[in-house]
């Protein structure tokens, strides 16, 4: 298939099958024989529980909050409350009114990425139970969201340039003591959240968190922003917070031997759960022999915006979003990661760049997760540092041009313009990576809307040998991702004019010119088959984004700059 076409997952290689059916011998045994078989089975189980086990390569670990796929805006308490109240709960209630409408829309390629619940009508009673539990058990979050809307309305009507102190007693009780009201120098008022305190408030309910484990068979999963994950016979559902040490023990079994008994204790499993866990384990690891290097430098492209930088001394990973399906050898997977990762670099807080599903798979083997510093309290700009620390990750927070050293090299945080619908979001950064004699610019989804910025970057850091960019130049409108946070309606015209767009061909060319880069690489923007549940993108050969990529590649060719549109996997060695 042409890589510029919409890629669909290969569905011809079997479904998940975790349960082991009874054997014919079991069915034929009499009472005495059955008793003997049980004794033998107990002996085998005792032996199995103490034998060396590894986590299978293709185990998916989906983090969930109230059964919805977890990402920054559904876990960080301010944004999670707003999304629960304004998006997720109304969407579930809409589903219950017309289940078949939602199911039909969720399977229609025309509505891919829409807010339609893809749960069969036969399971509508489970959705009704989920709605009831949210209304009952998440009342503090719903109250918090209502209080935010009320407070912002209060400020809009009363903060007109005069003293703000009389407004504090009028704030709703649910947010009192957790916010500050302030003006900018143009007398525009805003509400700022004291995020560390909100994590200690009733709005942060850790009991929402759970994980769902299954085996990756290549089947595309439902879109993460719309469809909750219900339990099934082929999944292992664990009501554990994301920071639980048992999860570190579990994912560590990818690279270190353990036993079923040890994992059962670490995860506090019952007999039924332990039986399902056994199907997720193997007697030997499936790690790639070439996951480390002995000399020189190497960069591997793992898909989307994920790059792995390596020397013999260190390993750096950017925006990890990595496939667990290693059946076909057409991509790098978790098997190909080095055992120890010095730094994970996160460019921004969108769900395809700070991917908790992958980050949880790396727990216990990362020195630090490097994240850009947020604006400290703006509603659309949650702190990634607070988020990750509460989930049990070591974190380094950086401002523009802060440096983070690693053995044999360093990373410099550089500015990131655009792609956030013109919202006041500071939690975004590009990165400049220096290792093994090369300087590499990691541009992610940033825009070349102001080329002069990159002239300053070059003046500060020198010329780039290589640059990696995304060219999603016609992104989704403002309300697609941020509608849950808007307490004042915006018109469709306004929303459509403020898109989640990165560079077009001309802007990307300006970045490369100003940086003096000799090589330029455009990453695949949701084209890889394993990313549909998060990206929900579909391109045709005549899509504007792909036309712009072709135009950029031609621009590079005319100037003698090596350039490629990346897809699935790529490797550079020097």
From TrEMBL:
Residues 1-12 have a biased composition (Basic and acidic residues). Transmembrane segments: none annotated. Pfam families: CmlA_N, Lactamase_B_2. Residues 54-285 form the Diiron non-heme beta-hydroxylase N-terminal domain. SUPFAM superfamilies: Metallo-hydrolase/oxidoreductase. Residues 316-469 form the Metallo-beta-lactamase domain. It comes from the Bacteria. Residues 1-25 are annotated as: Disordered. This is MBL fold metallo-hydrolase. It comes from Streptomyces guryensis. The lineage of its organism: Bacteria, Bacillati, Actinomycetota, Actinomycetes, Kitasatosporales.
